[in-house]
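Co-fold these.
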Amino acid sequence: MKPLLTIDQLSLSLSGKEILKDVSCQFQTGSCSVLIGPSGSGKSSLLKTLNLLNEYDAGLVCFNGKDIKKISKIELRKKIGMVFQQYNLFDHLSVLDNCALALKRVLNLKKRDAYEIAQAYLTKVKMNDFVNAFPRQLSGGQQQRVAIARAMCLQPEVLLLDEPTAALDPEMSFEVLETIKSLAEEGVTMIYVTHEINLARHLADQVIFIEEGRVVAQGDVKEVLDTTKNNRIKKFIEQIEHRLYGSE
Amino acid sequence: MSQYKLNSTFIIKVVVAVTVLFIIAPDFEVLRRFVFGFGQFITPSIFVLFFAILQYTLLKNNKFMALLVWVLIFAFILLNIKDGWPTGLMVNVVLTLMCLPMTFILALLFAVLRFQSTLLVLKIFATVIIESVRGVPLIGLMIFILSVGADMVPAYWMMPKIITLWMIYSLFAGVYLAEVFRGGFQSIPKAYFDGAYALGMSPLKTYVYVLVPKVVIDTIPAAFNVYIGLFKETSLVLLFGYFDLMNIALNYLDFPEHYDESIKIYMMVLILFWIVATIMHEYGHYLFKTFSKYEAKKT
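Predicted complex below.
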């Protein structure tokens, strides 16, 4: 089967600093890929690059077999949605308006249709009781669920999730993870940056370990997380599990 | 949720000020002339009506209607401008009203042009205009344009003086407001841009539908500061022969029989200015509370 998204020898520099070096990987339709690695390794930058929020210097990124630089940014972003770690909701718009904005202004849908679709996705993430609330009135977990609904409203083919639970406490993380699980079950192609090893074990079809801007390992969960011989990955996973479960 | 409640202190302040005004005014006719000049009561009543409609359109978020009401206010003012109208405090009020939308539009335009970094020529243009106009005194600019400028342009380009004054005031207040808006744009986190772009919005749509509404709401208090300043500066029109509140008061005091009333008359002028400025301030507060519901703390 042809991959939906292919990255070939991608290099990215920001403010003169090399962030990604020769990154190559593939993402299949309907798969869930998890990017793991230490902070500052370039995982978020890679996601932003796939959405063309970062302009890469060299390499090739193909979406549906087409070079993404040859697709208009707007068209590409309609098909590749993104959810940010800090939610990036618009504080001055209500929950419903946050979700309906792109439907009205990007897809040029009528107000009524836009609200209908937005309402449907908010119901899906169990936020239908908060349609008239403003982001600042919601908890972190609720805001993140709204952000997911907002990205899903455009019915993207790929959903990029940049550490959506990193800023949340375990209880709020649970709410968001439940939402993500249900999306994965529906077959939405997801590329997920996270430190949640358990979630990766449960959901991921593919795990990619990135360090210092390079792909250190990639493969299925077992290959990368459980039976790896790479000491650096072993140590990283140990540290995360130690942080999660203490020294028991 | 934060909601506007009519401030009792505001009512008390205005009632006290109006009472003092009636007590110190030599007679009702003088007070009437100071406020309405030589005009009729009907025109201010029409303004109140216009504002009631404008208020309604704002609350209904009907931008087209709001624009239409401003056009009607403008048309009404232009059709009514003649000798003897506006005069008194109405000059200051009418000029401020005329300047509000133009100041707002110019400020937004200059702020966006100066803030954005794609169109460098326009950025430089906006910066030059803002810095040149802000760096000169208003009175100097007015004299330059109205006297020197008038000699430099052909006669058929000449506009009614009030229109020229309207443009000067709008430009002057506009550059100050532009800096307020620019501050607003600069305080917007990068996350807003990323959020909007990731949704497929173009930079223009991001400005129009996301950034501008947020900046305009966030800067309402600071913008009203500029508007109040603009209202007070309209008293400079007396230098160009307009019978505004200040000029009418000075004329009144020219008569020898009124010499001993000077303290009362100057106090009346200041109190009248103060009342309008206080109402403007409260209106700004009301708008901010109404449109910044999102500032509410967690419920």
